[in-house]
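PROTEIN–LIGAND DATA SHEET

This sheet pairs a single protein chain with one bound small molecule, zinc ion, given as SMILES. Inputs appear in the order they were entered. The predicted three-dimensional arrangement of chain and ligand is reported afterwards as a token string under its own label.
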Amino acid sequence: LEPDIIFENAKLPDGRKVNIAVAGGRFTAFEETPISGTPSSAREDLLGRLVLPGFIDGHIHLDTSFIGDEWMPHKPCTAGFDVRERVAFQKENMAAAKPMAERANALIEFCLAKGTTSMRSHVNVDATVGLEHFETIVAAREKYRGFIDIELVAFPQNGVVSCPGTEELLDYAIANGCELIGGLDPATIDRNIEKQLDIVFRIAEKHGVDVDIHLHDAGTLGVYQIEQIAHRAIALGMQGHVAVSHAYALGEVPVEMVRRTADLLAKAGVSIMTNAPGAHAFPPVNELAKAGVIVFSGNDNIRDSWWPYGDGDMLGRAMIVGYRSGLYTDETLLLAFDMISGNAAKAMRLDDYGLRVGAKADFVVLNAAHIPEAVASVPHERAVYKEGRHIADSGVILKN
Ligand SMILES: [Zn+2]
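PREDICTION REPORTED AS:
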């Protein structure tokens, strides 16, 4: 296949200096010697800068952010963190916000300008909001096709068992464009662990889709639910198809319990997503990774009704996870980067990801000696390429 474009003087994460050929939006060669092309092949000199695979945001909410809207002051919970109360605040805020499509488009551009080339977005689907969020975000995904790959999780933010009518809506959303089924704190939201998990896994089995469950539930109650999810993954042969997002509990229980749970998660092929949230406890990612658990990351909430933070930068997110986890060695800084790249691709089963022949030519070019330095220093000057096309530079989308 004749290259459409040849990128010269690239530095790979392993230190090799190479020339890279791209055809039809995919990598076709990485060569230490010059690559010949047709006279019409475009050439671009990367000036010896580091080439990284496109960043993956493994957990975002495209439907509820205020990016693209006015600043919305944060309203604290009356007595400590309360999911139900935050959901109620969100409802008030959403009613006053700009149209969801406008905000979702702005958030997508915000993220891809910084190097995110794939993402997994949760989208609220329940009997209180119906299919409005789902339809809006499916349309936003369509609008940005070819610029960013977006997979959608049907997310029952008001519960499943405790929100009658939600099960049918989830089923519909999965049949009509969501790739995954979500869940939320079966114990504290539905007060019925078995029943929520029965419904979630039944829909997953029926449609052959993966599962990604939000789990904020604390301590041993949270760990118990993580175990139940892992047991179901094993029983249904869904190893590698299930993720638990947040899993705060793993950051709160004694290390022996973490290790025991980590072994089960590894056996069940259940991955764990964390964004290293604010001042909250979160899973010990290095401990989990050592046990063979796939840990990955995402921005989660970006400037929404949950908190005012978030800049959309997954490299910055890797730094935050590493900083809060005490990841100082080169080896563990590589883990932090894996959480926004290779590990996230594994959790999301993105088969055509990475810097290799045959994969989509999604990459980010920046000034750093190697990955550990990129994670620690988070260079803001960077060029973003999607399927070989230069689409953003230093946080700005290139209009062409
Ligand atoms: Zn979330």
